[in-house]
Amino acid sequence: MKSVFVTTGATVPFVPLIELFLDDDILNSLINHGFSKLVVQYGNAPQDLVDKLMAKNKTFNPRLEISGFTFKKEFIEEINKHDLVISHAGTGSILDAARQNKPLIVVVNPALMDNHQLQIATALSDKNHLISCPKPDKDLLLAALNETLPTYEFERLPPPNGEAFSKLVYARAGLVPKKD
């Protein structure tokens, strides 16, 4: 059973991303690509939106089982249960999914802080670590699912380099690192 995990942000949910999964064309595209399960992490989204999403389960089940949750501490474990991750473009969520070597489609929230998410998503997309949708748009997400995803060659994200970060922090702070 192939499954999709959608993460929209736990503390400030990305409502337009959740709304994309109310669209029958999006859901049918998932089915056409062999997905039979959709799990949405919707955070503290408005209850009427969550109710609409869960009502889609009645329409699409058993072809596509739809479920969701607000928040789980075991976020990495949740990512690893699924074959595809569709995420908001928060840096933490991107890194969590990309480091698990999962196919990743990122949908940018252009309303946030100088559109910094677009810069992050574009840079990682240029290096083939993810597929980027520059805004929550049905046609862009359908293009990512139908045209790009089937042939996309994802590049594994390199592991984090804590030593490089430490050196940067020490240099910026004007500190001298301790010698072992």
Automatic annotation (TrEMBL):
One GO location term (cellular component): endoplasmic reticulum
Lineage: Eukaryota, Fungi, Dikarya, Ascomycota, Saccharomycotina
Gene: ALG13
Reactions performed catalytically: an N-acetyl-alpha-D-glucosaminyl-diphospho-di-trans,poly-cis-dolichol + UDP-N-acetyl-alpha-D-glucosamine = an N,N'-diacetylchitobiosyl-diphospho-di-trans,poly-cis-dolichol + UDP + H(+)
Keywords: Endoplasmic reticulum, Glycosyltransferase, Transferase
UniProt domain Glycosyl transferase family 28 C-terminal: residue ranges: 4-137
Cellular localization per UniProt: Endoplasmic reticulum
Residue spans crossing the bilayer: none
Matches recorded under InterPro entries: Alg13-like, Glyco_trans_28_C
UniProt EC number: 2.4.1.141
Any single biological process term in GO: dolichol-linked oligosaccharide biosynthetic process
This protein's name: UDP-N-acetylglucosamine transferase subunit ALG13
MF (Gene Ontology): N-acetylglucosaminyldiphosphodolichol N-acetylglucosaminyltransferase activity
Family: Belongs to the glycosyltransferase 28 family.
Assembly with partners or alone: Heterodimer with ALG14 to form a functional enzyme.
Pfam families in UniProt: Glyco_tran_28_C
Summary of the function given for this chain in its UniProt record: Involved in protein N-glycosylation. Essential for the second step of the dolichol-linked oligosaccharide pathway.
PANTHER family linked: GLYCOSYL TRANSFERASE-RELATED, N-ACETYLGLUCOSAMINYLDIPHOSPHODOLICHOL N-ACETYLGLUCOSAMINYLTRANSFERASE
